[in-house]
Write a structure and sequence with these properties.
The chain is mainly alpha-helical. The chain folds into two domains: about 100 residues, no CATH class; about 170 residues, Farnesyl Diphosphate Synthase. The protein is about 70% helix and about 0% strand. The chain contains 13 helices and no strands. The protein is globular and about 60 Å long.
């Protein structure tokens, strides 16, 4: 499979599946757009394995297989030659080509797999520091992978900021998905915070989250904590070129606005998965392109 076909397949996955990220990715010039689509397609493959319906043991086996494939891909990229066993896989083909063109930190995929494995085994988080580890695995890693495509002059300064912004986005995801995650048997909020507010994240008979006296206070507390991560992470923007800055600002801006909705009405996440209408997402993307801010 030639790289062009592989990239087109990855871009189709991105258009179809990346409901929020696609608004930013489309603002990139074609070479970076293709490369970031390949990164997203691989990240999506890993996430889908972790969230699928297979037994846990099968999920772990398949995640281990993807890890081995990525290690082989990395070895081939570092050696500067293609791998014959990757040629029939369009995601691996596109990712290998992208990694030869941009300094994509491929070991970050190992962290993403670590986070997905934590989901599969049902890991719970006692402290906020424990949760930060998870967020860094599943979202900070994607921030650093994306930064490899953006390729700013000062990678050393930018990388921890990309990681921080990824954590901010993941904290927003966790608050948005409290109900759906609990329906899948997952609870991400730190136990120390649940104890502090006297809350339990449990389901009512109708499938919504059960009422809790201080639930809104808990959600606002976590949302305000996420705001501090946005404040630090968004200092990444001036380090990026115009189009990469617009891409990042659009993706972060959509999630930041979503966090604002959650802060304004914390009780809403008990009943539904909040999202921005398409027109608002387009407005955020347009603002990011013209002003370069989130």
């Amino acid at each position: 499979m030639i790289a062009g076909q592989a990239y087109r397949a990855c871009e189709e996955i991105t258009r179809r599946e990346a409901r929020n990220f696609s608004y930013g990715i489309r603002l990139l010039p074609p070479p970076k757009r293709r490369a970031l689509s390949a990164v997203y397609a691989m990240a999506r493959r890993i996430d889908d394995l972790g969230d699928g319906d297979l037994p846990a043991s099968d999920k772990l086996t398949r995640l281990a297989g993807v890890r081995r494939q990525l290690h082989r891909l990395r070895a081939c990229v570092e050696a500067g030659h293609p791998a014959a066993d990757l040629e029939d896989d369009f995601v691996l083909t596109a990712l290998a080509d992208a990694a030869q063109r941009f300094p994509i930190p491929l070991p970050a995929f190992d962290e993403l797999i670590d986070g997905c494995e934590a989901d599969v085994v049902g890991r719970r988080y006692k402290t906020f520091d424990d949760l930060v580890w998870y967020c860094r695995c599943v979202a900070g890693s994607v921030g650093r992978l994306s930064l490899g495509v953006f390729n700013p002059p000062d990678q050393a300064t930018a990388a921890p900021l990309a990681d921080t912004l990824g954590i901010a986005l993941q904290l927003t995801n966790i608050l948005r998905d409290l109900r759906e995650d609990r329906q899948r048997g997952r609870t991400y909020l730190p136990q120390e915070d649940l104890d502090r507010f006297g809350c339990r994240i449990e389901l009512a008979p109708d499938g919504d989250l059960a009422e809790s006296e201080r639930f809104a206070d808990l959600v606002r507390f976590e949302a305000e904590r996420a705001e501090t991560w946005y404040a630090r992470g968004l200092t990444l923007l001036p380090l990026l070129d115009r189009r990469s800055r617009a891409c990042t600002a659009a993706m972060a801006g959509i999630y930041h606005r979503l966090l604002g909705q959650i802060r304004a009405d914390p009780d809403a996440v008990r009943h539904q998965r909040l999202s921005l209408p398409g027109k608002q997402k387009l407005a955020v993307a347009a603002r990011a392109l013209t002003r370069g801010v989130a």
